[in-house]
Amino acid sequence: MALDSQARPSPSEIAVVGRALGVVSAALGVPLVARPADVADAIGVGRKPRARLAAQIVGGRELAAAAALLVRPSAPFVWARVAGDAMDLTLLGRALAGHGRRHRNRTVAATAAAAAITAVDVVAALRASRSGSATELTASTTIRKPPQEVYERWRAFSNLPEFMAHLERVDVLDERRSHWVASAPFGSAEWDATITEDVPGERIAWRSDQGATVPNEGVVRFVDAPGGRGTEVHVQMRYSLPAGGAGKLVARYFGEEPHQQLDDDLRRFKQVVEIGEVVRSDGAPGGKRARKEFPQRPAQPLSTDEYTEVTW
């Protein structure tokens, strides 16, 4: 089962849109810089030095936007185009407000065209921002137990905080719904989740309910490992931080790196299923409640067996 991607565009889609806008910026910027007087006259603002200078400034900004979007298409650069569009509309509005202006119809047409471009840029920027605010994670490990047993251990949601570092508790509401409480860099987050697919011994998929503080969805698959070595556990999930990209940077600043979190969670899950508990060093007996003690046995390298069995 793949995660539902209809609500958010994929990074590849954003790249295509961003580069298309980059081409548009280049097409607009080149004539503005190369022949500013002709362009200014064509849109009805005349050939005066001030009009030529304004055209060159706008053209230079368009070329800078084109370079940024063609090299690295992303939400911030698309929003930069929107800011530039606002400046263009302001300049054209001032031109329309002037008295005795010849070729006023040209300026009206240029303003209408700029407004249409602005609308396209705003839509693209909003879609890019929605894509950029989501974090997608994948991880896997191999556990020396049969798939049905591993599935049952994960399916007991109330026990998940035993190995998930940032999960405070899970309250099972019924067969398909549950309430989750997790710690976050600034306080805690709570949400209700619904199981969207449940195939015993094979996979569990879920999605947070409407209004979740941290919208999330994902799927866990349990697959027979080659050579009768147990079960491969594959986790794929996606969530959105309230502050979007800024929230990710803040979380990383405080040491909350999501990919490493998921890898560590799966390592602890492997320990719980295989030996019945999370292995901790003598110097970190506090376990889960002592956040700084979470790194597993920091003074002891993983054994050769663990290297062959755990993948991340």
Write the layout of secondary structure elements.
Elements (H helix, E strand, L loop, with lengths): L10 H24 L1 H7 L6 H23 L3 H23 L6 H29 L1 E10 L3 H9 L11 E6 L4 E8 L2 E13 L3 E6 L7 E9 L6 E10 L3 H10 L4 H18 L28 H6 L3
Antiparallel strand pairs: 1-7, 2-3, 3-4, 4-5, 5-6, 6-7
Helix pairs in contact: 1-2, 1-3, 1-4, 1-5, 2-3, 3-4, 4-5
Outline the structure in words.
By secondary structure, this protein is an alpha+beta fold. It has two domains: 11-131, no CATH class; 135-309, 2-Layer Sandwich (Alpha-D-Glucose-1,6-Bisphosphate, Chain A, domain 4), CATH 3.30.530.20. The chain has nine helices and seven strands. It has helices spanning 11-34, 36-42, 49-71, 75-97, 104-132, 147-155, 244-253, 258-275, 304-309; strands spanning 134-143, 167-172, 177-184, 187-199, 203-208, 216-224, 231-240. It is elongated and about 85 Å long. The two termini are 20 Å apart. Residues 283-299 and 302-312 have low confidence and may be disordered.
